[in-house]
Each structure stands twice: as C-alpha cells, then as structure tokens.
Amino acid sequence: MLIALLVPLMLAFLLFGFILLRSVIAKRALPNPEAIAVGVVVNFFDTLGIGSFATTTAWLKFRRLVPDRLLPQTMLVGLTPPSMLQAVIFLILLGVLVDPVLLIGCVLALLMGGLLGAPLVARSRVWVVQLVVAAALVLAAILYTLTNLDLMPGGGTASGLPLPLMIIAIAANFVFGLLLNFGVGNYAPTLVMLSLMGMDPRLCFPIMAGGAALAAAGAGAGHIARGEIDFRLALGMALGGVPAVFVAAFLVKEMPVELLRWMVIVVVLYAAFVMLRSAATGSRGATEVVGAG
User: In a 10 Å sphere around its CB, with 0-12 CB exposed, 13-18 middle and 19+ buried, how is residue 54 labelled?
Assistant: First the structure.
C-alpha cells in the first residue's frame, strides 16, 4: 500500500515540476530573489512542524508582493514542490506505521477536495478570498498560541482509528482539500483532529504531508493552466523550498521553536488584521455597487 502511494506521488512531483517549468519558460519568468529566501525559511520550519501557509501569507501580504486576488494560488503553487518532497520523506520514515486504509482514504479525500476547490477560488470575489485567508490566519495564530502554552491535544498512541472516526477524518480531509485553494493549510487542523481522536501525533505527519502534496499538485496544476498566479514568486518559493526541506529533514534533529512561534503569531495577526480590513472595504464597495444598480 505504501509503495502504491509513493510511486504516484513521485511521478506527480516530476510532472508538476515539468508543468511549472514549462509555463515559466513560456512566460520567460525569472525567480524573484526575495521569494527564494521566503521559500527557504518557511519550508525549513514547515518541515519541523511549524507550517508554511500562514507564515508565507503573512509575509507576502506584509510586503505587498502580490495582489490579494492572486495570493492563495501563487502561494499554493510555490509551496507545492517542497511539500511533495516532505511527503516522500515522511512516508518513507513513518508511513509504514500508519493504518493503510486511513492513510490512503485521507490522502484521496484531500486530493479530491483540492481538485474540486481549485475553480472556486478563481471565481470568488476578491473580498471573499481576503475574508477566508484572514480567518485562516487567525486560526493559525490561535493554534500556535495553544501549542506554545502546551494546551494542544497531546494525542495517544494509536496508528489507526475505529470506523466511525475514520469516516469523520476522511470527510474532514475533503473539506481541508477545498480550503487549501484559499491558502488555508491542512497541517494544523489535521494534527489537532487526529490527536483528539487518539492518534500518535508523529504518525499524523505522513497523512498530512501525503494528502497535502497530491491535493496541492492537482489544484496547483489547475491554477498554472489558468495562469492566474505570479510565476516569479511561485518559482522562487519552489527553488528555495526544496533544498530547505532536505536540510531540515536530515541535518536538524531538534530545535527550539517556541520563541519563533511567538514571533510568527505577531506577524500573522497583523496580516490577518490588514486582510480583514481589505475584505471589509471590498465587501462594502461591492454592496454599494449593487445598491447603485
């Protein structure tokens, strides 16, 4: 079962890289140097369990590197190659210990959600995207805070779940896949959910990473085809992120990240405030236009 997941994952990694590279060459886009640095930092700490979606969103918003309308899909495409590499590493190291039905079910559910959600973000109004991203940032800040205060669920020792809980976990992963397209990371909610269900937190990583990799690849390929992303930023984050994952996975054994999380919380909350303000302005403007018609 593990081989059946690893082989398509590695093939998807190569195919996604080819699709992105072909589009970049066609558009003659050069990687943004700042995006390379962002890719290195966020993916290094993502591999250590901090997450990359909230931190990347916060930085891109803070620096105004991309319009809000293009932010979620640009970030998703840029972070997909590093997340796929993470998935391969975690599956090789820990995947054999996880209940294969739960692993495959959650991965496929997240993939389907990612594919079906890709067109939604392209059709959504800008203020709706801003509102969803802001909510995701606030959620991330809450989870970071709970983690630092040791209030997150400790989890159990299980490598699988009873059937009713497994069905709930698979259904939830479908929703997480939809939300990936709006820049809402699946790592934190998946970790909390499975830990509350009694799973060993270490064994959540193959589920989180495997599903995120395939879902992001499927959704990201759709965004690349539509062309509604900043290719310079996406390419830069991908080029910086891949080697950072290798370094974090194989060279860093243990690293205190509590202080970094507190710093991230401040930045993320600031970005959420700015995004909420933009969403409120956009929503008010849209209402006025409808009223005028």
Answer: buried
DSSP state letters, 49-84: TS-SHHHHHHHHHHHT-S-GGGHHHHHHHHHHHHHH
**Whether the Cβ atoms of residue 259 and residue 46 lie closer than 8 Å to each other:** no
The per-residue pLDDT of the chain, averaged, comes to 82
Rg of the chain over all Cα atoms, to the nearest angstrom: 18
Calculate the CA dihedral of residues 117, 120, 126, 127 and round it to 10 degrees: -70
Residues 133-173 pLDDT 10s? 778 778 777 877 887 787 766 667 888 899 999 999 999 99
pLDDT of residue 171: 95
Helix 258-292 with 126-148: angle, nearest 10 deg: 160
Domain count, the chain: 1
The reply to whether 130 falls in a domain is: yes
Whether 149 is covered by a domain: the verdict is yes
Quick one: pLDDT at residue 33? 96
**What is the extent of the structural domain holding 269?**
2-283
Cα 59 from Cα 62, distance rounded (Å):
5
Flag whether 238 is in a domain: yes
